[in-house]
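Open question from group meeting: does this chain pack into something compact, or does most of it stay loose? Before anyone orders reagents, we agreed to write out a predicted structure and look at it together. Recording both the input and the output here so the notebook holds the full record.
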Amino acid sequence: MPTGQLKILAISGSTRSNSVNELLLQRIVELSSPEWEIEIFKGLTDLPYFNRDLDGPNTPLSVDVFRKKIARADGVLICTPEYIFSLPGILKNAIEWTVSTTVFSGKPMALITASGLGEKAHESLLTIFKTIYARVEESCTLLISGVAAKIKNTLEDSDRATIEALEKLVASFSDLIKEVKAAPPVKG
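Structure tokens returned:
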């Protein structure tokens, strides 16, 4: 890994293989190279349904791995569709497994909602991550309505305005992460 490369954990809220959200993450990988080292998390389906009784000494291994990946990342990028005017249940489940921790507290976040419409899911994402004290800046959020017509198999075939919006988000997210990393630690 080149010196100074930022570690990004990317999470797709869609579990479909070859989903448009997965394609979008691939476009972001292309746009962010070589500044970012991106790991696309593939374990949402491995997380059990959230059960507070299993949180603590009995935390499932898949949940522990997920939390550690978040903690080790310099920033977390979520790209999700909207299902029935809300977040996909599997993504909400994953987030619920983090609420008893502080892994998102102060963590730089980039939030993309890419769907047919997406406004309600986007609003939910913003509310959730502000509530759990993640570092969310407006310049690091993006709502892409009508995404299926905008993101294609190559950057060149994708909608130019959407790619430019992604480029701005990548630059803003990099700046946010660097700002957070440069800040002196908070003393308690």
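Observations to bring back to the group:
Residues 60 and 153 are 36 Å apart (CA to CA).
The helical segments are 20-32, 61-72, 89-96, 119-131, 160-182.
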